[in-house]
Amino acid sequence: xxxxxxxxxxxxxxxxxxxxxxxxxxxxxxxxxxxxxxxxxxxxxxxxxxxxxxxxxxxxxxxxxxxxxxxxxxxxxxxxxxxxxxxxxxxxxxxxxxxxxxxxxxxxxxxxxxxxxxxxxxxxxxxxxxxxxxxxxxxxxxxxxxxxxxxxxxxxxxxxxxxxxxxxxxxxxxxxxxxxxxxxxxxxxxxxxxxxxxxxxxxxxxxxxxxxxxxxxxxxxxxxxxx
Length: 227
What we know:
Recoverin, domain 1, two-stranded antiparallel sheet, 12 helices, disordered N terminus, ubiquitin conjugating enzyme binding, ubiquitin-like protein binding, DCN-prot, DCN1-like_PONY
Protein backbone atom coordinates (compact mmCIF):
# COMPACT_ATOMS: atom_id res chain seq x y z
CA UNK A 1 0.00 0.00 0.00
CA UNK A 2 2.84 2.38 0.89
CA UNK A 3 4.59 1.59 -2.38
CA UNK A 4 1.38 2.30 -4.30
CA UNK A 5 0.98 5.68 -2.55
CA UNK A 6 4.57 6.56 -3.31
CA UNK A 7 4.10 5.61 -6.97
CA UNK A 8 0.94 7.69 -7.24
CA UNK A 9 2.69 10.59 -5.56
CA UNK A 10 5.60 10.37 -8.00
CA UNK A 11 3.27 10.22 -10.98
CA UNK A 12 1.26 13.14 -9.65
CA UNK A 13 4.45 15.16 -9.19
CA UNK A 14 5.59 14.33 -12.70
CA UNK A 15 2.20 15.35 -14.08
CA UNK A 16 2.46 18.64 -12.20
CA UNK A 17 5.97 19.23 -13.51
CA UNK A 18 4.94 18.53 -17.10
CA UNK A 19 1.87 20.77 -16.87
CA UNK A 20 4.00 23.49 -15.27
CA UNK A 21 6.49 23.37 -18.14
CA UNK A 22 3.82 23.08 -20.83
CA UNK A 23 1.94 26.03 -19.36
CA UNK A 24 4.75 28.26 -20.66
CA UNK A 25 4.05 29.33 -24.21
CA UNK A 26 6.85 30.73 -26.35
CA UNK A 27 4.24 32.06 -28.77
CA UNK A 28 2.52 33.92 -25.93
CA UNK A 29 5.90 35.15 -24.71
CA UNK A 30 6.74 36.60 -28.15
CA UNK A 31 3.29 38.19 -28.46
CA UNK A 32 3.79 39.82 -25.05
CA UNK A 33 7.21 41.11 -26.12
CA UNK A 34 5.69 42.72 -29.21
CA UNK A 35 3.38 44.76 -27.00
CA UNK A 36 6.47 46.78 -26.05
CA UNK A 37 8.05 47.15 -29.50
CA UNK A 38 7.25 49.18 -32.61
CA UNK A 39 6.46 47.94 -36.14
CA UNK A 40 9.68 49.60 -37.32
CA UNK A 41 11.79 47.44 -34.98
CA UNK A 42 9.64 44.55 -33.74
CA UNK A 43 12.59 42.55 -32.37
CA UNK A 44 14.00 45.24 -30.07
CA UNK A 45 12.38 46.49 -26.89
CA UNK A 46 13.76 50.03 -26.35
CA UNK A 47 13.62 52.65 -23.57
CA UNK A 48 9.94 53.54 -24.07
CA UNK A 49 8.92 49.91 -24.12
CA UNK A 50 11.11 49.27 -21.08
CA UNK A 51 9.31 52.00 -19.17
CA UNK A 52 5.94 50.44 -19.98
CA UNK A 53 7.21 46.95 -19.11
CA UNK A 54 8.45 48.17 -15.72
CA UNK A 55 5.13 49.92 -15.10
CA UNK A 56 3.22 46.75 -15.99
CA UNK A 57 5.17 44.54 -13.58
CA UNK A 58 5.16 47.25 -10.88
CA UNK A 59 8.93 47.80 -10.65
CA UNK A 60 10.88 51.05 -10.95
CA UNK A 61 13.40 50.93 -13.84
CA UNK A 62 16.24 51.71 -11.41
CA UNK A 63 15.28 48.85 -9.04
CA UNK A 64 18.09 46.32 -8.70
CA UNK A 65 15.68 43.49 -9.60
CA UNK A 66 15.67 44.84 -13.18
CA UNK A 67 19.43 44.32 -13.29
CA UNK A 68 18.98 40.73 -12.11
CA UNK A 69 16.35 40.17 -14.80
CA UNK A 70 18.70 41.62 -17.44
CA UNK A 71 21.42 39.28 -16.11
CA UNK A 72 19.07 36.31 -16.57
CA UNK A 73 18.48 37.43 -20.16
CA UNK A 74 22.19 38.16 -20.66
CA UNK A 75 21.04 41.47 -22.13
CA UNK A 76 23.89 43.33 -23.81
CA UNK A 77 22.79 46.95 -23.47
CA UNK A 78 21.09 48.84 -20.66
CA UNK A 79 17.61 50.04 -21.61
CA UNK A 80 17.15 47.44 -24.35
CA UNK A 81 16.05 43.81 -24.65
CA UNK A 82 16.27 41.95 -27.94
CA UNK A 83 13.72 39.24 -28.71
CA UNK A 84 16.40 36.55 -28.32
CA UNK A 85 17.45 37.93 -24.92
CA UNK A 86 13.82 38.14 -23.80
CA UNK A 87 13.15 34.54 -24.82
CA UNK A 88 16.37 33.28 -23.20
CA UNK A 89 15.56 34.82 -19.81
CA UNK A 90 11.82 34.32 -19.70
CA UNK A 91 11.97 30.74 -21.03
CA UNK A 92 14.34 29.88 -18.19
CA UNK A 93 12.03 31.63 -15.72
CA UNK A 94 8.94 30.06 -17.39
CA UNK A 95 7.26 33.46 -17.65
CA UNK A 96 5.02 34.55 -20.51
CA UNK A 97 2.84 37.11 -18.73
CA UNK A 98 2.92 40.06 -16.33
CA UNK A 99 1.56 37.95 -13.46
CA UNK A 100 4.19 35.24 -13.87
CA UNK A 101 7.06 37.75 -13.84
CA UNK A 102 5.58 39.40 -10.74
CA UNK A 103 5.54 36.01 -9.04
CA UNK A 104 9.27 35.61 -9.81
CA UNK A 105 10.39 39.00 -8.49
CA UNK A 106 11.12 37.71 -4.97
CA UNK A 107 13.12 34.82 -6.42
CA UNK A 108 15.14 37.27 -8.55
CA UNK A 109 15.82 39.52 -5.53
CA UNK A 110 16.93 36.53 -3.48
CA UNK A 111 19.59 35.67 -6.07
CA UNK A 112 21.48 38.70 -4.78
CA UNK A 113 21.85 36.95 -1.41
CA UNK A 114 23.98 34.17 -2.89
CA UNK A 115 27.63 35.40 -2.87
CA UNK A 116 28.62 33.48 -6.00
CA UNK A 117 25.58 34.63 -8.01
CA UNK A 118 25.97 38.18 -6.72
CA UNK A 119 29.57 38.23 -7.95
CA UNK A 120 28.35 37.13 -11.39
CA UNK A 121 25.69 39.86 -11.45
CA UNK A 122 28.20 42.47 -10.23
CA UNK A 123 30.71 41.59 -12.96
CA UNK A 124 27.95 41.45 -15.57
CA UNK A 125 26.77 44.94 -14.55
CA UNK A 126 30.05 46.51 -15.68
CA UNK A 127 29.76 45.50 -19.34
CA UNK A 128 25.98 45.92 -19.29
CA UNK A 129 26.00 49.52 -18.08
CA UNK A 130 29.13 50.99 -19.71
CA UNK A 131 29.01 52.87 -23.00
CA UNK A 132 29.89 50.26 -25.62
CA UNK A 133 32.06 52.82 -27.45
CA UNK A 134 34.30 53.11 -24.37
CA UNK A 135 36.55 50.53 -22.71
CA UNK A 136 35.92 52.01 -19.26
CA UNK A 137 32.76 53.05 -17.41
CA UNK A 138 32.18 56.76 -16.89
CA UNK A 139 32.13 57.81 -13.25
CA UNK A 140 28.51 58.96 -13.21
CA UNK A 141 27.30 55.55 -14.38
CA UNK A 142 29.72 53.78 -12.04
CA UNK A 143 28.40 55.73 -9.05
CA UNK A 144 24.81 54.78 -9.87
CA UNK A 145 25.64 51.10 -10.34
CA UNK A 146 27.80 50.92 -7.21
CA UNK A 147 25.00 52.52 -5.21
CA UNK A 148 22.56 49.98 -6.63
CA UNK A 149 24.75 46.96 -5.89
CA UNK A 150 26.78 47.90 -2.79
CA UNK A 151 25.03 50.93 -1.27
CA UNK A 152 22.96 49.01 1.27
CA UNK A 153 25.50 46.34 2.15
CA UNK A 154 28.91 47.97 2.31
CA UNK A 155 29.42 50.05 5.49
CA UNK A 156 32.10 52.17 3.79
CA UNK A 157 30.08 52.92 0.66
CA UNK A 158 29.12 56.49 1.67
CA UNK A 159 32.77 57.33 2.33
CA UNK A 160 33.88 55.69 -0.91
CA UNK A 161 31.30 57.73 -2.84
CA UNK A 162 32.65 60.92 -1.20
CA UNK A 163 36.18 59.88 -2.14
CA UNK A 164 35.18 59.39 -5.77
CA UNK A 165 33.47 62.80 -5.81
CA UNK A 166 36.65 64.62 -4.86
CA UNK A 167 39.10 62.34 -6.70
CA UNK A 168 40.82 62.79 -10.04
CA UNK A 169 39.10 59.71 -11.47
CA UNK A 170 36.71 60.27 -14.37
CA UNK A 171 36.25 56.60 -15.33
CA UNK A 172 36.53 53.15 -13.71
CA UNK A 173 38.14 50.24 -15.54
CA UNK A 174 37.09 46.62 -15.10
CA UNK A 175 40.01 45.71 -12.83
CA UNK A 176 39.13 48.56 -10.47
CA UNK A 177 35.44 47.58 -10.63
CA UNK A 178 36.10 43.96 -9.67
CA UNK A 179 38.52 44.92 -6.90
CA UNK A 180 36.00 47.31 -5.34
CA UNK A 181 33.74 44.31 -4.72
CA UNK A 182 36.60 42.26 -3.23
CA UNK A 183 37.58 45.21 -1.03
CA UNK A 184 34.00 45.63 0.20
CA UNK A 185 33.80 41.93 1.08
CA UNK A 186 37.18 41.41 2.72
CA UNK A 187 38.42 44.66 4.30
CA UNK A 188 37.26 45.51 7.81
CA UNK A 189 35.36 48.73 8.48
CA UNK A 190 38.31 49.97 10.57
CA UNK A 191 40.75 49.05 7.75
CA UNK A 192 42.75 46.98 10.25
CA UNK A 193 43.40 44.16 7.75
CA UNK A 194 44.26 46.37 4.78
CA UNK A 195 47.75 45.69 3.43
CA UNK A 196 49.20 48.78 1.74
CA UNK A 197 51.72 46.50 0.03
CA UNK A 198 48.97 44.22 -1.28
CA UNK A 199 47.94 43.93 -4.91
CA UNK A 200 45.07 46.42 -4.71
CA UNK A 201 44.63 49.03 -7.47
CA UNK A 202 46.14 52.46 -6.72
CA UNK A 203 42.59 53.85 -6.49
CA UNK A 204 41.91 51.76 -3.38
CA UNK A 205 45.27 52.62 -1.81
CA UNK A 206 44.35 56.27 -2.28
CA UNK A 207 40.89 55.69 -0.81
CA UNK A 208 42.40 54.13 2.31
CA UNK A 209 44.83 57.04 2.75
CA UNK A 210 42.02 59.56 2.18
CA UNK A 211 39.75 57.79 4.68
CA UNK A 212 42.47 57.72 7.33
CA UNK A 213 42.90 61.46 6.94
CA UNK A 214 39.13 61.95 7.27
CA UNK A 215 39.21 59.92 10.47
CA UNK A 216 42.18 61.87 11.81
CA UNK A 217 44.47 58.88 11.49
CA UNK A 218 46.47 60.05 8.47
CA UNK A 219 49.22 62.02 10.20
CA UNK A 220 49.80 59.46 12.96
CA UNK A 221 50.04 56.58 10.50
CA UNK A 222 52.46 58.59 8.36
CA UNK A 223 54.60 59.35 11.43
CA UNK A 224 54.54 55.69 12.43
CA UNK A 225 55.86 54.70 9.01
CA UNK A 226 58.53 57.41 9.19
CA UNK A 227 59.86 56.38 12.61
